[in-house]
């Protein structure tokens, strides 16, 4: 089996079905500068300037590699397009979430200090750009980082699409948190945007 080529953001967006592909490109076009300079997190993963975009491209590439082998073993109830869309949108608040304080340290912008505010911001951007999301897409966005206070021993909150996206996001944030490398990344074609 030959190693998978690391895809660029535009190659990944090309795999998202319409009408969401056009919305994805418009979002990228309108916010390319802020996406390319924002951090992936304050400190835990892809925390360098440009790390937000690196994280998004990384999780989408992980998904592109994992989707087909799992789908061959047992048919998945969602498409690769569904996965890539959720992962593209899953951290949409991050380019606006952090700023520098008077000391020059990175800190949260107060508008993003609660999950409900982050969700409202993301939903507003989704509406603004005309994304068409299914119930499963919404579930994926809500639970891509886990079930948190929604967890219950008697009921699943996270549907299969959300679980798949969570797997990809978790591996990028906790397994490959320093990738892509600045140079000589072992994954052919992978490189930092920041």
Overview features:
mainly alpha, two-stranded antiparallel sheet, 194 residues
Tally the structural domains: 1
Helix and strand run? HHHHHEEHHH
| Oligomer type | single chain
Supply the helix-strand structural class.
mainly alpha
Global shape:
globular
Strands, count: 2
Would you give an account of this structure?
By secondary structure, the protein is mostly helical. The protein has helices spanning 9-13, 20-37, 51-73, 80-89, 94-97, 115-128, 135-143, 160-175, and strands at residues 98-100, 106-108. The chain has one domain. A hairpin with a 5-residue loop joins strand 1 (98-100) and strand 2 (106-108). It is built from eight helices and two strands. The chain is 51% helix and 3% strand.
Annotate the secondary structure layout.
Layout: H1 9-13, H2 20-37, H3 51-73, H4 80-89, H5 94-97, E1 98-100, E2 106-108, H6 115-128, H7 135-143, H8 160-175
Helix pairs in contact: 3-4, 3-8, 4-7, 4-8, 7-8
């Amino acid at each position: 089996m030959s190693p998978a080529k690391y895809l660029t953001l535009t190659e990944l967006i090309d795999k998202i079905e319409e009408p969401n592909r056009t919305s994805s490109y418009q979002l990228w076009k309108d916010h390319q500068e802020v996406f390319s300079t924002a951090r992936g997190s304050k400190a835990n993963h892809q925390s360098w300037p440009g790390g937000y975009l690196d994280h998004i491209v990384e999780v989408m590439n992980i998904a592109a590699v994992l989707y087909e082998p799992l789908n061959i073993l047992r048919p998945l109830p969602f498409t690769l397009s569904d996965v890539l869309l959720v992962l593209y949108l899953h951290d949409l608040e991050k380019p606006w979430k952090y700023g520098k304080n008077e000391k020059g340290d990175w800190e949260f912008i107060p508008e993003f200090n609660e999950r409900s505010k982050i969700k409202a911001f993301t939903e507003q951007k989704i509406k603004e750009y005309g994304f068409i999301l299914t119930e499963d897409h919404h579930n994926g966005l809500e639970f891509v980082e886990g079930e948190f206070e929604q967890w219950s021993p008697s009921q699943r909150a996270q549907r299969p699409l959300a679980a798949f996206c969570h797997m990809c996001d978790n591996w990028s944030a906790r397994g490959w948190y320093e990738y892509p490398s600045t140079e000589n990344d072992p994954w052919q074609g992978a490189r930092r945007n920041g």
